[in-house]
Amino acid sequence: MGGVDKGLQPLRGRTMVESVLARLAPQVDDIVINANQNLERYGALGHRVVSDQIAGFAGPLAGLHAGLKAVKHPLAVTVPCDSPFLPADLVARLQAALGANDLAVAKTGDQPHPVFALVKRDCSESLEAFLAQGGRKIDAWYASLKVIEVAFDDEADAFRNINTLEELGRA
After folding, report:
1. Which of 11, 17, 104, 114 could disulfide-link to 118, CB 3.0 to 4.6 Å?
2. 28-59 per-position pLDDT tens digit
3. Of 80, 33, 90, 32, which is closest to residue 59 (Cα–Cα)?
4. Degrees (nearest 5) of the Cα angle 138, 84, 97?
């Protein structure tokens, strides 16, 4: 999006992150926002804000790492700020499938959506070791865990993300 903060872009009268929070808040007990810029604006949303603890841009895994370090509950769900149409039953369906697995990830058809996941907080040590060894690919870290993919074929459009200003305009 040309270097702008995607989460703070307006969509249908509010920011994308506000849309995500409106969908997610009824599904969880607590929310932690991972942000590395505009911390005051994110903080004004009424939730705790944590920044990446891993030096350099380590991508979504750095955000997950910071979140897992900050959560108080044994499970954490992760969703991106650029997917404001996430399912209203995302957490319930992921949790119902989690069982003895480390992580439950949403998928539609053959396409997993690795940033829509329910993760056991205990995975933070594994993630920290993976990042310390230079790992950055979410799929590579997931391959070291017990993962279950959860079908959301009935809500495939809920996982679309908005990456460009053109896509934002269409949404």
Report:
1. 104
2. 999 999 999 999 999 999 999 999 998 777 78
3. 80
4. 55
